[in-house]
Design brief:
Largest sheet: 10 strands, mixed
Number of strands: 60
CATH superfamily of the largest domain: Zona pellucida, ZP-N domain
Radius of gyration: 54 Å
Number of helices: 7
Distance between the termini: 95 Å
CATH architecture of the largest domain: Sandwich
CATH topology of the largest domain: Immunoglobulin-like
């Protein structure tokens, strides 16, 4: 396909200071030579919204206005669905260089306006005649009718005899040697001179071999009639001249179907045209009809494959096109919700042959057909993944001529695109068939999301109401899409995993969707960063979850199964309902530990201790008897000859009470007696270790009661050496070995500080400080156990 380009002629520069001359961008105009017209299409991005064409010939420049276009054989249209500005120019249009009806040369100026700046481009094109002329050709354009007849065509013998005779008599009585004009309407012939006809918009032109007549629709001399039930607009001019006794007459008839498209129950577009193209020409029966779109006829097989049907029924040709058939152009319409219609630029050719004189008439029709309005549902998908903790919804199948303008959430309207500070995310996705969609993400904890918790069913219901505002382009006609989406999630309390180590117990929990609905506590105290810092917990938290390490003997431990070999300790975390503070569940971990010494001072007044007496035994002079307290009847629960286990009331077993600075201390002694030393000396030597528990006086409820002891806080315990100087062990002495459980590694000897939860009646809340100072051969030794 050849394209013609050119420079603006020089005199155009003087028209306006705001007009500039440019070469039109390469490939910008689509120019196609069809059988009987030239088509020029320019993208609207170049043509703009106020574009205009001018026809150029040797006489000058002629603006193609709406009225001038209908008179001179031009059709200018804006095609918003295709994004084009289109010009169709008849081969017989004004200002076209016609070379013997065989080649046609066009010159146009295209004027565009962008931001107040006008530009003028020159577009040239030459079209050779591709299809030979038929004796009679009729074109039904959207704004005019055009007829061309060979100058040597025979008389229309098919006309009604009485009409022809009447016309001849009128012409003979008034005719002279000059050509004259009459219009026939309702059986009446109205004379009209050519100047008057031209002023009314009629065009008569004689070319090298044809007579051309062109008229806009709706002229005073046109008339409406029906042919085989199909409404037709027709104009019937007659040209005549008398030479002596002979009358020369040319009958020119232009007739076009003005049938308005209808629609079948299935939604097909229906359009009709009579088989006989004019009411006074009834002998044209051998008719062949072809259809296509956008100026291109389709092969009958291809047309049928697209669903285009051509049916000839009772001298009427009916065209049937499916609403969504290939070749149509879709258009969105805002009617409360989104609707759509399909537009077809129907191109029809009808070839008919006269039975009497074998004269062929070729009729061409350009007709814009629209389907009914069809509902166009949009696609809505709930793509929410509960793990992401946000709603993810998709609104799709949105046509290309529709865009999203705003979204309303919980009464608040957000313009699109969202600001950078917004917690919402909106992304656009391309889809097939020239459609697109939007993915909107809204956090579940956003104020625009409604939440409703059902404790009975252990469910949380999330609801998001959305009102999308969409615009149909280019008019930006708005419509709305209102949708709601819900999410049901099981309200699962935190689930802990725990592990034991030499230094204590560790807990971890993954951060789940409803972590905020629960509180964690150690006993009655909420587990907070402040509490963790106060009691020496190692706690860290992030988006993944929470990790907690509790050192042994920290606040919250309970102790069980205390023996000389070791003990078990339990730490428990309570899971509370954040609204009601009710205990929902608990996570407890029990671990086994070993310790050489410990002392527990409980809130109910029990002193439980494991004391290492091996130094006393080694310093003695004989085999010791079983240890005892101040009350010699209070005997240990276990004794292995080196370490001893006692458990007794703090105010029992002969304990002594001392009050100093609002603190109450209960003291007792562990004593050993030796009946005979290693040198065979007789007698008895007593050695002892002092043990004590100290409580705040303000926290004691029954200070001097021997029947009940109750304290708000655990006591602080100590084991104090009161043993006299001991001998140095000889090389032959056998070392004393502390027996530890094989499954639990022994703890290092440290200072114990214990905080015990008061959750279980079996275990008590304690604080222990173990500190022993022993003197052996003048050597001061301090041992602390942590």
């Amino acid at each position: 396909m050849a394209f013609g380009f050119g420079l603006c002629v020089a005199f155009l520069l003087s028209l306006s200071a705001t007009v500039t001359c440019d070469l039109i961008p390469d490939g910008a105009p689509q120019m196609e030579c069809h059988d009987r017209y030239l088509m020029i299409a320019v993208d609207r991005s170049i043509a703009g919204d106020q574009s205009q064409f001018e026809a150029v010939d040797e006489t000058g420049v002629h603006p193609i206005t709406e009225e001038y276009a209908a008179k001179c054989g031009y059709t200018v249209r804006v095609l918003p669905l295709q994004g084009l500005v289109e010009l169709r120019a008849s081969y017989f249009s004004c200002h076209t260089d016609n070379q013997d009806d065989e080649a046609f040369t066009f010159r146009f100026n295209l004027i565009t306006t962008h931001e107040g700046l006008k530009r003028k481009y020159t577009v040239n094109k030459s079209c050779p005649l591709a299809l030979p002329w038929a004796p009679r050709e009729v074109t039904c354009e959207s704004n005019y009718m055009e007829v061309s007849i060979m100058t040597d065509v025979t008389c229309p013998t098919a006309s009604k005899r009485e009409d022809w005779d009447s016309a001849v008599q009128t012409a003979y009585s008034s005719a002279n040697s000059e050509w004259q004009l009459m219009f026939k309407k309702d059986g009446v012939l109205t004379p009209k001179n050519f100047s008057e006809a031209e002023a009314q918009g009629y065009v008569f032109e004689v070319t090298a071999g044809r007579l051309v007549f062109r008229t806009p629709y709706g002229q005073p001399d046109s008339f409406r009639t029906e042919v085989n039930g199909v409404p037709v607009e027709a104009v019937h001019p007659l040209l005549f001249a008398r030479q002596r006794w002979v009358v020369l007459m040319v009958e020119v008839v232009a007739a076009c179907s003005v049938y308005k498209a209808s629609h079948s129950e299935s939604g097909h577009i229906l359009w009709e045209i009579p088989s006989s193209w004019h009411p006074v020409v009834t002998s044209l029966h051998k008719t062949r009809t072809s259809v296509g779109v956008s100026g291109a006829l389709e092969d009958p097989t291809n047309a049928e494959g697209r669903g285009y049907l051509v049916e000839d029924n009772n001298d009427t040709v009916r065209i049937s096109i499916p609403a969504k058939a290939e070749g149509g152009h879709r258009k969105s319409v805002a009617l409360g919700e989104l609707a759509e219609l399909y537009v077809f630029e129907l191109y029809l050719e009808q070839v008919a042959t006269d039975d009497d004189d074998n004269v062929t008439t070729r009729l061409r029709v350009h007709k814009t057909l629209e389907s009914l309005l069809l509902q166009r549902p949009l696609l809505f998908e709930n793509r929410t993944d509960p793990e992401e903790q946000c709603f993810s919804v998709f609104l799709g199948d949105i046509p290309a001529d529709v865009t999203l303008a705003a979204v309303r959430l919980n009464g608040v309207e957000l313009a699109v695109p969202f600001g950078n500070a917004s917690s919402y995310a909106l992304t656009e996705e391309s889809q097939a068939n020239d459609t697109h969609g939007y993915v909107l993400k809204v956090p579940l904890d956003d104020a625009g999301v409604m939440q409703q918790r059902s404790k009975e069913e252990a469910l949380m219901r999330y609801r998001l109401d959305l009102n999308y505002t969409l615009m149909v382009l280019p008019a930006r006609s708005p419509f709305h899409k209102v949708v709601s989406v819900e999410l049901l999630m099981d309200v699962v309390p935190p689930v802990f995993t725990a592990s034991c180590s030499e230094s204590g117990v560790s807990f971890s929990v993954k951060r789940q969707p409803f972590f905020h609905l629960w509180n964690l506590s150690v006993g009655p105290d909420l587990l907070t960063p402040e509490l963790a810092a106060q009691h020496g917990y190692n706690m860290s938290s992030d988006d993944q979850g929470l990790q907690l390490h509790v050192p042994l003997f920290s606040h919250g431990f309970t102790f069980q199964n205390i023996t000389l070999k070791g003990f078990t300790s339990t730490f428990e975390i309570l899971v509370l309902d954040a609204e009601t503070s009710e205990v929902h569940s608990a996570a407890a971990e029990t671990c086994s530990f070993a310790a050489s010494e410990l002392i527990l001072c409980s809130t109910d007044g029990m002193m439980t201790l494991v004391a290492d007496l091996s130094a006393m035994v080694l310093g003695g002079r004989g085999s010791p008897d079983r240890p005892n307290l101040l009350d010699r009847s209070c005997r240990p629960e276990a004794w292995d000859g080196g370490r001893v286990l006692f458990s007794f009331p703090v105010n029992g077993c002969g304990s002594k009470v001392q009050v100093v600075k609002e603190m109450v201390t209960y003291k007792n002694q562990i004593s050993l007696s030796q009946s005979e030393d290693s040198r065979g000396e007789s007698g008895s030597k007593v050695e002892s270790v002092t043990v004590q528990c100290t409580y705040p006086l303000s926290g004691l409820h029954s200070f001097f009661s021997t029947h009940k002891f109750e304290s708000d806080t655990p006591g602080a315990g100590q084991i104090l050496n009161s043993t006299p100087a001991m001998r140095t062990s000889s090389p032959e002495d056998k070392p004393i070995t502390t027996v530890q459980p094989t499954t639990v590694p022994p703890l290092k000897r440290v200072r114990y500080v214990l905080y015990q939860s008061n959750l279980s009646p079996r275990y008590v809340k304690v604080t222990n400080i173990i500190e022993r100072r022993r003197t052996q051969k003048g050597y001061q030794q301090s041992r602390k156990f942590l």
